[in-house]
Fold this sequence. Notes:
Elements: E1 7-12, E2 17-22, E3 25-33, E4 51-59, E5 67-70, E6 73-78, H1 81-86, E7 94-102, E8 121-125, E9 140-143, H2 144-153, E10 159-163
Amino acid sequence: MTAPARRWMRVHLDRQEAELLEGEEIQRRYPVSTALNGAGEEDGSFRTPRGWHVIRARIGDGVPEGGVFRGRRWTGEVCTPSLYASQPGRDWILTRILWLCGREPGRNRFGRVDTMRRYIYFHGTPDAVTLGAPGSRGCIRMKNSDMLDLFDAVPAGAPVWLGTAEDVPDAPDPGLFPTTASGR
């Protein structure tokens, strides 16, 4: 019996698109917005990190669509157009959070390049925010309905690759993500 294919993700920084895959098959594509400052791993750079990551934590199950997070906790607020307009400079984190942890020591894990310590997430964003173009402070912003879909489809521990077309992988790096008997 063949083990089921593993679910994993790719984020194309050059195309501003995320893909959910099962094995080598693309299941879904989502428009995203990554860092306005481009790609980079250094703490304080406000850039989106590259390389292999894992979904370390899934936060927000049961929070309503548009629920506002601060410090990874739901504030009890739901983002509305008027609330959004009243705080134009706020970095809105909405609906769900998929918190990333780097898997490559020295590149995106430990020290001043640690993705998890930089609080890099997939998260929902207000409807008025443009997707398909860089604009975040380092995170991967998604439409709220897409964030709900992705949250329900991908487990904690799922591999995530972030990069550009020149080095796009066909499968998770087996050295970083060994498969188990269940394939997960």
